[in-house]
Amino acid sequence: MNWYMQTGKDGDVVLNSKINYSRNLRNYRFETKDQKDIQEIENLVKTNLPSIGYGLKFLKLKDMDELTKKSLNEKGLIDEYSSNNNVSVLVNDDENICIVINAQNHFEIQVFSTGMELENTFNFAREIDQIIEKTFDIAKSKKYGYLTTSPMNVGTGMKVGLTLHLPGLTKTGNIRKISQTINDFGLSFIAKYIKGSNSIGDIYQISNKQTLGVSEETIINNLKGIVDKLIEQERQARKLLGKNEIELEDLVYRKYGILVNARKLKWDEAIELLSDVKMGVDLGLIKEINDSQIAKMYFYINPANLQLHFGQNLDSYDRDIKRAELIKQLINEK
Fold it and tell me: Taking a C-beta distance cutoff of 8 angstroms, is the pair 153, 31 a contact?
């Protein structure tokens, strides 16, 4: 089963961990749009693919249909910037390794894990990065380190990110203060899902900003220290909510009841419902389903992956019907 449909360590709070290395080839223009350069880089990658290993397959975005491209975006393997037809990817069957080629940088080496797995994810990503550096002539400077398209990523060229579920801190009114504190530490802390000007779903992403003048190990240790504290604070906030047990049980079971019985569900409504239901499952209040089923729901409610699951191109109304239908199927899964 792919990483994004599993649960891991500290999975009640930490949904996933990600390491991203930005790398460029020395003898090619960065962020090139030149078709000759793009083709040469692709050929270079394909020639050296056996040396990289890990069962990676070369896929070109222009050969994919729109649903498949949107599916990669929903999985977090590519972003909107990487969705143009000049981009290719190297990806393994488990999709926990995805190297994006010819996007903002020549290589974006991404490794994903479920739950709080910073050290293991970092060690695996560094192993792959070292193979890439041995295989290709990577651009770097003795003074500045690895050279990247954006000066914000020069140095280690490493971005570390975690996705967190923080309903307790949100409901107790502490999330704004925490966001400010984290940003004061020089980290990025943003809501994953936005509707209008408001965040929805209580899911947040935290990552480092600084890549220059700091070691990879320091980036990992600093972020781990902050996230460990956030895990502790989130669990305390949930305990505080649990002091009024009847109210909390009523809240999560009402939301669960809608998931079970709704005939159609919009994407944003499903995201909001799943947040409270997941909290109920993680607190042991809802026993009818488990966190693995919740993870699958989070994945399949997204428009592209929902349509790929059913093998149909659906308009928004039919997607809402199929979303509710699929959630019922997953709830009844044993």
Answer: no
- Report the helix count and the strand count for the chain, using DSSP H and E: 11, 12
10-238: CATH architecture: 2-Layer Sandwich (3.30)
The answer to whether residues 310 and 322 touch, using CB atoms and an 8 Å cutoff, is yes
The distance of Cα 78 from the centroid of its chain, to the nearest Å, equals 10
Give per-residue pLDDT as tens, 5-30. Answer: 888 999 999 999 999 999 999 989 88
Average pLDDT, rounded, for the chain: 93
Q: Is the pTM of this model over 0.90?
A: yes
Q: What residue segments make up the domains of the chain, in order of their start? A: 10-238, 245-331
Q: Which helix (H) or strand (E) holds 206?
A: strand 203-208
Q: How many CB atoms lie within 10 A of CB 269?
A: 18
The Cα-based distances of 276 to 44, 110, 253, 255, 257 in angstroms read 48, 30, 9, 7, 11
| Dihedral over alpha carbons 228, 234, 239, 244 (to 10 degrees) | 180
Structure tokens at 305: 């992956």
